[in-house]
Amino acid sequence: MAKTYKTFNWNDFICIQDPVHQMYLDTENYFNVYGPLLETFDGADADSFIDLFFESSPVHCSILLFKDEESRLDFQYLAIQMKLIPPIQEICEGESKKQKNRRKHPKKPKRVLTIKHHHQLRSEQMLKTLDKLGRQLENEGDPNIRKRINDKIQRLTKELEKTR
Prior knowledge:
Order of helices and strands: EEHEEHHHHH
Largest sheet: 4 strands, mixed
Radius of gyration: 35 Å
Distance between the termini: 91 Å
Shape: rod-shaped
Number of strands: 4
Strand content: 5-15%
Number of domains: 2
């Protein structure tokens, strides 16, 4: 009788063969990785039964193996399609597509400011500040505050003349 995910007795097995490395994973780790794929084996069609892919090991009855190379490769393909594991090429290369793209196309280094450019930016900022102080001076009625704003404008004007 064909077994589905729900009717299969998973408690009888302690390890299941991994489709990529062909080593054995304990059932808990196997379900963490391949659980969503195993759950699709619900008997809805002729290809969705557990016993089409797996069989008990003849050497150790608590180990679940793939029936043959074709079933292992089919399971591997389905796991990749469901994005449970990366493509085999990525596994073999040891880096993801994103990591490979970063390595092949590194970000351009940030532009280093030259002294000239730094002075130009500083001068622009001083001009903006002078403009702002001028607007504050026009709207200010208190003579003490007007005097402080005037002092700031004079200091900033002297500093601006030094940079030019």
